[in-house]
Automatic annotation (TrEMBL):
The keyword Transport does not apply. Residues 9-239 form the ABC transporter domain. PROSITE patterns: ABC_TRANSPORTER_2 (PS50893). This is ABC-type multidrug transport system, ATPase component. Keywords: ATP-binding, Nucleotide-binding. One of its GO terms (molecular function) is ATP binding. InterPro entries: AAA+_ATPase (IPR003593), ABC_transporter-like_ATP-bd (IPR003439), P-loop_NTPase (IPR027417).
């Protein structure tokens, strides 16, 4: 079985502990390939640990496989046939500090047959990273960019990006968004999992969201399903309290100020009962944008 025939990551009871800290807590989910997933969660939710697990960089308990439509599956851990097609890049991916960016690029070129030297050379220049500089001397943003150049230059079938916007100035954020959009558009068969605190940075790129909360994956769903399955109600505090008093509508998040209250509910704005109650009580009902929906379901507050 080759990576091009595989359809999804399958995780079952995947757990990782660091001392007494449980970074991943019995994660069980399927992550389909061929999509652009946003990995969303608070600080300490386990995002980096999950990405490193998917990349085969750390060993976990439970099972992590890549499966195809026939039901056959291949382990990710210590499997060159899989790992040759996966790459993890981003702000905190460790590189040898005494090596130059150019040396790291040369190592990548020797390791992966998919390495695209013209692409990497162009983007290390456009991002303004000195290829002769030692990795340890780079700023936080430049380290992020150097890692991204290497990760994107591999043209891997599965690309995992850990906080790719961290430390970047406005110009380089725009450039990164542009190159990611081009890469995603040029080959829609590739898989991307992008971890980011700020959903708005990657919102235009995503077609799916993975929500991680307290070391557990709570959602893996298309962006449209997430927003359509969430409703925002706002108005006078007393009226909102009346709407919620029978517990019919599960509350995901709420904010209050100056006698007004806004609640985010785990239901659709098309829910006839919710719509009727909101109108009767003089409340405003709306569908949230992606950022609001993600925040309500476990993203960064």
């Amino acid at each position: 079985m080759t990576l091009t025939t595989m359809t999804a990551f399958h995780l079952h009871d995947v757990t990782k502990k660091f001392g007494r800290t449980t970074a991943l807590d019995a994660v069980t989910c399927d992550i389909p390939l061929g999509h652009v997933h946003g990995l969303i969660g608070r600080n300490g939710a386990g995002k980096t640990t999950l990405l490193r697990t998917l990349a085969g960089q750390i060993r976990v308990s439970g099972t992590l496989t890549l499966g195809d439509a026939s039901g056959a599956a291949s382990q990710v851990w210590d499997n060159p046939g899989v790992l040759d097609h996966l790459v993890l890049a981003g702000a905190d991916v460790p590189y040898p500090s005494d090596m130059s960016v150019r040396t790291l690029m040369d190592i990548a070129a020797a390791r992966w047959i998919t390495w695209d030297e013209p692409f990497a050379t162009e983007w290390v220049d456009r991002f303004g990273v000195d290829p002769k500089a030692r990795f340890s001397t780079l700023s936080r943003g430049q380290k992020t960019l150097a890692s991204l150049v290497i990760g994107l230059g591999l043209r891997a079938q599965v690309t995992l990006l850990d906080e790719p916007y961290l430390g970047l100035d406005v110009q380089n954020r725009d450039l990164l968004c542009s190159v990611l959009l081009d890469e995603i558009t040029d080959d829609p068969t590739r898989t991307w999992i992008i971890s980011n605190h700020h959903v708005e940075d990657a919102a235009l790129l995503l077609d799916s969201v993975i929500v991680l909360d307290g070391g557990r994956v709570t959602e893996v769903c298309p962006v449209d399903d997430l927003t359509r399955g969430t409703a925002v109600v706002e108005g006078a505090s007393a009226a909102v309290a009346s709407l919620l008093e029978d517990g019919q509508f599960p509350v995901l998040r709420e904010d209050a100020a100056a006698g007004r209250r806004r609640v985010t509910l785990a239901t659709s704005v098309e829910d006839a009962g919710l719509d009727a109650c909101a109108r009767d009580l003089g409340l405003r009902l709306s569908e949230p944008d992606l950022e609001h929906a993600v925040l309500a379901r476990g993203g960064e507050r």
